[in-house]
Amino acid sequence: MNEKAEIGVIGMAVMGSNLARNLAHHGYRVALFNRSPERTDRVVTEHGAEGIFRPAHELPEFVASIERPRRIILMVKAGDATDATIDSLLPLLDPDDVIMDGGNSLFTDTIRREERVRAQGFHFVGCGISGGEVGALEGPAIMPGGTRESYQILGPVLEDISAHVANPDGSVDPCCAWMGPDGAGHFVKMIHNGIEYADMQVIGEAWMLLRGAGLSNSECADVFAEWNTGDLDSYLIQITAEVLRQADPRTGADLVDVIADRALMKGTGTWTVQTALDLSCPVNGIGEAVFARATSSHDDLRRVARAALRGPDGRVEVADRGAFVENVRRALWCAKVVSYSQGFDEIRTGGHKYGWNIKVADAARIWRDGCIIRARLLDRITQAYDADPDLVSFMCADSVAPELAANQQAWRDVVGLAATSGVPAPVFSATLAYYDSARAPRLNAALTQGMRDLFGSHSYERVDDEGSWHLNWSGDRNEERA
Ligand code: ATR
Predict the structure, then answer these.
(1) Which of its termini does the chain have fewer beta carbons within 10 Å around, N or C?
(2) Is the Cβ–Cβ distance between 140 and 197 less than 8 Å?
(3) Which of 60, 57, 51 is nearest to 6 (CA)?
(4) For residue range 98-129, what is the model confidence (pLDDT) as tens digits?
(5) Please, where are the H alpha helices in 251-400?
């Protein structure tokens, strides 16, 4: 009865309490602490019978109740609260204890915290957790970063409580793997969320196009449910059908028609794009998804634009509704492949830049279940990066490029129809532009370089010679080495 806890969780809000219960369900003795003790008490009152909990009202009591080396999971609000909690924990720890931050922290904060905690002789694990509150309780996807030693101490527990995927050969993989040193885990989680933004946005664009062509919400729900049985099989498509079928309990109207069309965000999508800009990594599908949410919430812009700007009204004229629905399905698949491809490119690029050597296939592997972007497509992405760990771009892999080629006409038709009908489809069209930019034999960048040399003597390179060159634009218009 007096055996020490095997692990401790600080932060008894929704995610923290659900993770603590998940640990208890797997047989771990779990120490609990929350800044306000009422929350700790409530977890024990409501769920105490689910496992062995060791609640504490004071932090020293909490720390002392955990066996060494201690494993302590922080599930507190990202930002200052995380720093404050780490500050109060550090004087209470012993060598080799592990603090894990399971919140949505910015990876650069994690790099800073890891260095500081490691310098004091402890381990710090920045760990992405995806799956929402149900995932935290029943098995999330878990993306830990930190020293290898820290993974030896904490990894087996995390693998235990994560979701698990059965492979075709009968083996089972946990949806948890070591992502790399310091900020790697939170970096990968950040990209997960960026991809999630793009995936949700393309689904939304498909819905608006179907609605524009005259399908009711319940007909759209049937279409998404049908799509969920094929290549598009994913959690997000599944819940799309569920949301579209739901009636408003107050009015009886379709719920989606009474939800205000202002999408909010907590920042991880924005971080994905800000980081991509720093890395010069063109994730324009994810970027458009973040901007689409910003546009939806820009009340002033929408008010003045509705009054000032004229154009088609969003009704989509289609001769053959069945053929149109199929085209939208194909376009959605292409835009999704490219959005995921961009996210994985950012993981690869960031992994190199920060020296993490992230195994990109492992990121895809652990997202196959438990997390919000779990999707059939991730099996293919895993296989592609297993076959070639340095794959430059998933969309160019032999296993997927021919399918994009086969579906591209539908994608082009849908983007064209969206434009002529006035249906905003920023991710459908941005991902197509990216696809065409990446494969173009020549880009307009040549003209850009010419202009930069003219107005700023920024020089240009030539297709037929080495080195940098400058044209004497204001003089004799001869060329010289820059
Ligand atoms: P959720 O899991 O619901 O998303 P969150 O907003 O990310 O929760 O985090 C809330 C948790 O952070 C709570 O446990 C909160 O403690 P209180 O219940 O005492 O408010 C904790 N938290 C927030 N600010 C904190 C701080 N400065 N120091 C310590 N814990 C803090």
Answers:
(1) N
(2) no
(3) 51
(4) 999 999 999 999 999 999 999 999 999 999 99
(5) 255-258, 268-279, 284-297, 299-308, 321-353, 360-366, 377-387
Is the Cβ–Cβ distance between 335 and 411 less than 8 Å?
A: yes
Both ends of the chain: CA-CA distance in Å? 78
| CB 240 within 8 Å of CB 232 | no
* Tokens, residue 116: 């500081």
Q: Is 70 exposed, middle or buried (0-12, 13-18, 19+ CB in 10 A)?
A: buried
| DSSP output for 62-110 | HHHTBPSSPEEEE-S-TTHHHHHHHHHHGGG--TT-EEEE-S---HHHH
Cα separation, 107 vs 349, in Å, equals: 15
Q: Before 37, cis peptide (omega within 30)? A: no
Question: Average pLDDT of 308-337?
Answer: 98
C-alpha distance from residue 132 to each of 32, 136, 462 (Å): 20, 6, 52
**370 CA distance to ligand 1 middle (Å):** 24
Report whether residue 12 contacts ligand 1, using a CB cutoff of 6 Å: yes
Nearest residue by C-alpha to atom 12 in ligand 1: 76
| 78 Rama sector, left if φ>0, alpha if ψ -120 to 50, beta otherwise | beta
Q: Which of 229, 225, 345 is nearest to 285 (CA)?
A: 345
Query: What is the number of H-type helices and E-type strands within the chain?
Result: 20, 12
How many other C-beta atoms are found inside a 10 Å radius of the C-beta of residue 293?
A: 18
Neighbour count for residue 297 (Cβ, 10 Å): 15
Strands of 460-461's sheet in order across:
460-461, 468-471, 479-481
For residue 369 the two structure tokens come to 């279940």
Output the six-digit token pair for 107: 């990876």
Asked if residue 85 has its Cβ within 6 Å of ligand 1, the reply is yes
The model's pTM is 0.96
Strands 123-130 and 172-174: unpaired
At 2, list the tokens. 């007096």
**Cβ–Cβ under 8 Å, residues 285 and 431:** yes
Query: What's the gap between Cα 66 and its chain centre?
Result: 33
Is pLDDT of 1 > 60?
no
| Residue 139: predicted pLDDT | 98
| Pair type for strands 7-10 and 172-174 | unpaired
Pocket test for ligand 1, best of 35, 42, 129, 130 (most atoms within 8 A of CB): 35
CB distance 81 to 105 below 8 Å = no
